[in-house]
Amino acid sequence: MLETLQNLYLGFTVALSPAVFLYAVIGCIIGTLVGVLPGVGPLAGISLLLPASFGMDATSAIVLLAGIYYGAMYGGSTTSILMRIPGEAASVMTCIDGYAMTRNGRAGPALAIAAVGSYIAGTVSVVALMLLAPPLANFALRFGPPEYCALLLLGLLALAYMSGGSILKALAMATLGLLFGMIGIDPMTGFFRFAYGVVELGDGIGVVPVAVGLFGLSEILLTAGEEAPPEVKKPRLADLLPSRQEWRDSVWPIGRGTVLGFLIGIVPGSAHIISSFVSYAVERRVSKHPERFGHGAIEGVAGPESANNSATSGAFVPMLALGVPSGPIPAVMLAALMVHGISPGPLLIQQQPQLFWGFIASMYVGNIVLLILNLPLVGVFVNILRVPYPYLYPAILIFCVLGVYAVNGSVVDVWIMIAMGALGYILRKLDFETAPIVLGVVLAPMLEMSFRQSLAMSSGDYTIFLSRPIATAMLAAGACLLLLSMLSLLRRGAGWRSALGLANVEKEDTHET
Amino acid sequence: MATKDRIAGAALVLFALFVLSESRALPLGTVRQPGPSFVPVLLAALLLAFGALIAAIGGRSERFRSLRWRELPHGIAILGACAFSALALERLGYRITVLIVLFFLIKIVEKKAWLATTLVALALSFGSFYLFYTLLRVPLPLGPWGI
Q1: Residue ranges of the domains in chain B?
Q2: Which of A184, A441, A505, B38 has the most CB atoms at less than 10 Å from its CB?
Q3: What is chain A's mean pLDDT, rounded?
């Protein structure tokens, strides 16, 4: 422990040196800007600025890129809360209650709780990263294709079980999302699936056009034509800070989101996205008033925002400790380190203590910078709501188109966004949740790949899923959730006859006899 | 009785049938060695089952006729503006496309004053281009004469 503190002291001397500190601040500012603008997510932001970091020393480069990553995660919540446009996929869940709070005149508290939750989650998860990196990374390495497949199935079932509405509808929407995720080249055989000659569909459909269409565009379609434009209460100065009750309601969701996010973040894949979905589902399940979710429950902002920031730190565990990136963003950062001649892995801590501990300490510094930067900006961002809606929604629409186009420079993505916007509009009219579709699109390629790789490993023997302890445990947990939800369906089953329209017929029959 | 859930369930069933029909063009493989259409067929079958169940137990949901579609004409105009931007973005360039879309939405759809429309449209189209293209170096399409 004493050694860790000494190392941390060394890290702070590096992180607080003027040059490194300056890069941390610049990274956080650019990241916040990148996160606020829809479409230009952290991956695009880091990739665009990667060449700029080549001329720096390794510590400054990694600190700058980590600052962008953190800043983008913070900034992504702003457009989700104010306009229902997810800055990137991890902010999808924040849209639901964050935007509902905005419409209730509580945009300020939502933004403030998102910033504070992100700060706490970021800071606590850095402590966990510091202490638990090597053992946790070893555990994550025991995940092979069967374990991934089981984990992803468990994630989908958990989300459906914990969703507030009908489990059947949630499962149907997740399946629809998984089907959308099947579009593109089959990674194992090279067959084009459902692409209809559109070459751009070879890589599949992206998460950003789907999320922006289902959330941002569908919201504009639903509200722009109303006789009275959406009633967004203009916040007063006194309403910018959360009330005592809102602080109290947010404490546990922030704590749970932090732990969940960190643990999920370690597992390779699109962890930070999944963590926010799981956190939202957990909060709705444990809440005494689940009916408040979707109508402006602060727990629905505090939990997912904390989880996706915590997952950001978790994602660095396998990267720093083992040299294995857990997603595209750590992969780009890994590339940045390798450009400087540093190979991350088990020996990094011994060979480059200044870089490792400097990076850890810069995360603390970055979190404080982001809090200082974001809290005063809450008032500035909230003022966007003062723009009259007939001017505001065309501007939002332009940013949707621009953000979606900027990801790949392809108009096909804009068409996908339009189709998803129309689909989201219809689904919301019919009382279906659209978030499981986004999760399905994210998980589909990983789920299919791990399923088929598992079968390839076992020569087609399905017992491979039951012969590996981690996979078996996760599948058993998934089966339990399914049984529990079926039980609750059966308990409510007394109404199934009336649902089918048979109850009245039965009554009439009884009367007749 | 046509309820919201029954219509939605039926639509999901139809979509699942469409996917099943389209999957016939791809090799299915075997249960032990799944081919490229194995997982899509499995998912479509699941969706078919979920859709049928939603339709079957959806008798108590709200009647489909009770739905109000007042925002639909506005929505069609917005979707039309999006479709135009997708068609024109790489032909007319970012700035001209955005300018036309904003004029259409603010002046024609929202019926706002000429001066306000012009100011907002010019500021947004050229301002966002400067921010993204010049400052953030996001590659955005240029139109004729490099505009």
Answers
A1: 4-66, 72-146
A2: A441
A3: 79
